[in-house]
Amino acid sequence: GENVEQHPSTLSVQEGDSAVIKCTYSDSASNYFPWYKQELGKGPQLIIDIRSNVGEKKDQRIAVTLNKTAKHFSLHITETQPEDSAVYFCAASYPSYDKVIFGPGTSLSVIP
Amino acid sequence: DTGVSQDPRHKITKRGQNVTFRCDPISEHNRLYWYRQTLGQGPEFLTYFQNEAQLEKSRLLSDRFSAERPKGSFSTLEIQRTEQGDSAMYLCASSLDTSNQPQHFGDGTRLSIL
Predict the structure, then answer these.
(1) Fewest CB within a 10 Å sphere: which of A18, B59, B61, B69?
(2) d(CA B80, CA B74)
(3) Chain B residues within 8 A of A51 when measuring between CB atoms
(4) How far is B42 from chain A (nearest CA, A)?
(5) Is B47 in a helix, a strand, or coil?
(6) pLDDT in tens, A30-48
(7) How many Cα atoms occupy the beta-carbon half-sphere of A48 within 13 Å?
């Protein structure tokens, strides 16, 4: 069935270090993988996305990698800053259902 | 501000009452989605519209829930005879109508059932 797993559920890093969040999905037909950042009291904000014809995408301090064979994708944040502290959600499209399924989230804390 | 707008931001009501939420999507977006989010979880899909047509409903959407998008612009989500378990954040998102387009979310309506 439709499922997106995400690890870890909580992550604490020192300012300036890197953070990595990993996700797996179950539908081999999934071809679109967005990542969202959610701050307290706000809706999820799209920070980066990747499509299945690309293995890696980078935007300044944020990068995503995709391994379609293993059905894994990851978010990498380098040179973390306190304002990166938030809950991060990965998601995967399910073309058969024309919708996007979200993972359970990772709460990232960047310690100054 | 041209983002997705939701109203109200917070709603507190007694069990058994009806509530209605409104979502105004980004103007050029034909698709509109409703999600429910509970504490510590990701958004769970409820339903979506392509223009005014409601194309899919999740099994999470019991017969107490109804959504409309009468003119293909704003949408309303109504919950009748609210229950304690309906307490959650209700999020709206919109996107362009081609496949695999980014969904842009509003800041949600937080519903608390007393």
Answers:
(1) B59
(2) 20
(3) 100
(4) 5
(5) strand
(6) 999 999 999 999 999 999 9
(7) 18
